[in-house]
Design goal:
This protein folds into two domains: 1-32 and 79-119 and 166-248, TPP-binding domain (Rossmann fold); 37-76 and 124-159, SIR2/SIRT2 'Small Domain'. Helices cover 36% and strands 17% of the residues. It has helices spanning 6-14, 47-50, 53-58, 60-76, 81-92, 106-110, 168-180, 198-205, 232-246, and strands at residues 17-22, 95-100, 115-117, 120-127, 155-159, 183-187, 209-214, 226-229.
Length: 248
């Protein structure tokens, strides 16, 4: 059973606007490997090497195969108790936003409705040549980069690679939601990837009470108002129960 401070009780009681900023750690208990954890990601490559446009240009089939591998892992995965608790917050607070760095669709599958995907979504794709979209398309051949049926160009996942700009409209909305938030939960992120990582700092700068949930210290921990060290799948349901108790 977690203990929360009187300040967090007060904030949960009076708040209307809640923001969740999530990273790969919120999906860890669904069996999705994190980026920088010991299980790391795929084979001997680092995400920075594979999640980049240069890698795709140099070896599209290798990058495509990596995303197919992750898509299959993600499709077999289920949202875990952290995703479900986050979705439940929408039933007790009028304004809940999930700003996620994850591309795994699990917040949506858990029932969250206000989701801002800063780094895109692995189920969405587009042709690098003509921009034609191929969202939620099942590609049969998993290890070769599929070709666009309109122009023959390479199809790529609609995710933000290293060195690429984030979708500006989504990022702007995430910043606005962060500035307006009264409680900001920072869940399962190492908070080292920018500009996404500025979101919790923005929330704090504009007066939100910032609560970190992680299994270990992170770059953000010194700036958190309160930290809960443990698994998101165990701590979020407890925070939800406390919120239900205090938010009348
Ligand atoms: C940009 C989508 C400029 C793809 C991702 C040097 C060279 C080149 C670039 C840079 C550089 N230095 C800095 C940069 C900028 C770079 C950056 O920040 N790099 C970092 C690594 C230093 N950023 C960019 O390149 C961004 N673009 O800057 O463009 C620009 C501007 C204008 C115009 C043109 C260009 C783009 C960054 C986006 C990259 N795409 N993902 C894909 O997924 O394949 S980033 C990737 O990292 C994922 O999105 C992931 O979510 C994200 C952050 O990682 P985390 O989510 O935090 O995951 P991580 O494994 O790190 O941590 C997991 C945490 O969970 C840990 O803390 C762990 O303790 C915790 N945990 C584990 N289990 C649990 C748990 N917590 C709770 N419960 C558990 N059970
Ligand atoms: Zn095309």
């Amino acid at each position: 059973m977690i203990e929360i401070s009187d300040e967090l009780k007060r904030r949960l009681k009076n708040a209307d606007k809640i923001l969740f900023f999530t990273g790969a750690g919120v999906s860890a208990e669904s069996g999705i490997p994190t980026f920088r954890g010991k299980d790391g990601l795929w084979k001997k490559f680092s995400p920075e090497e594979l999640a980049s446009y240069d890698a795709f240009v140099k070896n599209p089939d290798l990058v495509w195969e990596w995303y197919q591998f992750r898509r299959e892992t993600i499709r077999k995965a289920e949202p875990n108790d952290a995703h479900k608790a986050i979705a439940e917050f929408e039933k007790i607070y009028p304004d809940v936003t999930v700003v996620t760095q994850n591309i795994d669709n699990l917040h949506r599958r858990a029932g969250s409705s206000n989701i801002l995907e800063l780094h895109g979504n692995i189920e969405k794709n587009y042709c690098v040549n003509c921009g034609k979209r191929f969202d939620y398309v099942e590609f049969e051949n998993t290890n070769e980069t599929p070709k666009c049926d309109a122009c023959g160009g390479n199809i790529r996942p609609d995710v933000v690679w290293f060195g690429e700009a984030l979708p500006q409209d989504i990022f702007k909305r995430a910043e606005q939601k962060a500035m307006a938030s009264e409680v900001c939960f920072v869940v399962g992120t190492s908070a080292i990837v920018y500009p996404a990582a500025i979101i919790p700092y923005k929330a704090k700068e504009y007066g939100a009470y910032v609560v970190e949930v992680n299994i270990q210290y992170t770059d953000f921990t010194p700036d958190a108002d309160e930290s809960f060290f443990g698994k998101a799948g165990e701590i979020l349901p407890e925070l939800l129960n406390l919120a239900k108790e205090f938010h009348r």
